[in-house]
Amino acid sequence: MPYLRYAPEIERPEPDEEAVIEGIIQGMIGQLGTVEAREGHAVRASHAKSTACVVGTMEVPDDLPAELAQGLFARGKTHAVAIRFAQGPGETLGDRVSTHRGMAIKVFGAEGERLPGHDAPVQDFVLSTGTTFPSGTARGFLRDGAAISGSAALPEGAKSAVSSLARNLNRALGAVGASSPTAEFFGHPYDHPLRNAYFSQAPLRWGDHVAKIGAFPASAPQDALRDWRLNPHQDEDGFRTATVAYFRAHDAVFELRAQLWANADTQPIEDASVEWPEADSQYRTVATITLPRQDAHSDARARFFDEALTFRPSHSLAAHRPLGSVMRARLRVYPALSEVRHRATGVAEAHPTRIEEIPA
């Protein structure tokens, strides 16, 4: 089956989408306020607790086939990258609450036409565990976000219980070859963050084409972590402890892969809750990310990554414009929430254009 071509018409916003997105923003601002009042400090509305703040390189080969050699990946080049690994909740909970996880990638030296309002040679890819986004659309995002925001005031023990129930359901479904994106979202296994694959979940433009992307662990030391499990009763920051210890001893490698759009019937643009069947198109490697041994959570770097640095889908080349209902919401939600958080903390947003601006 030939790969389908990008055209603006493949996106079909709902008539009231702008109002829905505004509802998401206001609901998440309320969540930010609730968490700030409890913690005494404003944190990110999602992925608040970092596990590693690292730098490295992304190598694009010079022999990609034409359909993959698009945008940032059009020619062979080695880019510097800054990457933040984090737990999912928009509050700094103990690791008994193990939900979905994030891997935010900032690629430097991204030349080409950029989205409006983005004037730096930088490309951000914001990835999470799970191949799909359970809410599916902006309207679903509004519905589910309201439930999450409403739970922000609950005690941590209640959130731990919910996470445990979801994790057990996830395990039971896995035993019979089934899965639940919602169970994965709220009850991620106690496995090692560097053994996870991370996904865009929703599509983005891929030059002449469209793709979803994923970052897959690709080194022997990471493979050796397959049986590692956190004991959350020993260390409330155990995921961070384990990840920092790994980076003291080993490099980490991820293959960045693209799954090109090939079937408009089975691979929808507007519903991010639908997994694109690999029978229609497989994930294919477009670059290799290497993160060398380093101090993955030094005070200076963690403070910079957690407080100042921003990762946004809107930090993008036009060739990789985020697509679909959830992505259009993210284009507006991320900067709006960042503005509120930075105003509350008094820390200016950092928009580095060179890797040298990242603290050592």
Descriptors for this entry?
single chain, 360 residues, alpha+beta, Catalase HpII,  Chain A, domain 1, 8 helices, 9 strands, 31% helix, globular, Catalase_sf, Catalase family protein
Structure commentary:
The chain has 360 residues and is α+β, with helices and mostly antiparallel strands. It has one domain: Catalase core domain (Catalase HpII,  Chain A, domain 1, Beta Barrel). The protein is built from eight helices and nine strands. Strands 1, 2, 3, 4, 5, 6, 7, 8 and 9 form a nine-stranded antiparallel β-sheet that branches. The model is unreliable at 158-162 and 166-170 (pLDDT under 50).
Please bin the fraction of helical residues. 25-40%
Shape: globular
Span from first to last CA? 47 Å
According to CATH, what is the class?
Mainly Beta
Biggest sheet layout:
9 strands, antiparallel
Mean pLDDT: 90
Number of helices: 8
Query: CATH H level: which superfamily?
Result: Catalase core domain
- Model regions low in confidence, pLDDT < 50 over at least 5 residues: 158-162, 166-170
Q: Mind telling me which CATH architecture this is? A: Beta Barrel
* Domains (count): 1
| Radius of gyration, in angstroms, nearest whole number | 19 Å
Write the layout of secondary structure elements.
Blueprint: H1 17-39, E1 50-60, E2 77-87, E3 101-108, E4 122-128, H2 138-151, H3 156-175, H4 181-186, E5 198-199, E6 204-206, E7 209-217, H5 220-223, H6 238-249, E8 252-260, E9 283-291, H7 299-308, H8 325-345
Antiparallel strand pairs: 1-2, 1-9, 2-3, 3-4, 5-7, 6-7, 7-8, 8-9
Organism: Rubellimicrobium aerolatum
InterPro entries: Catalase_sf (IPR020835)
Protein name: Catalase family protein
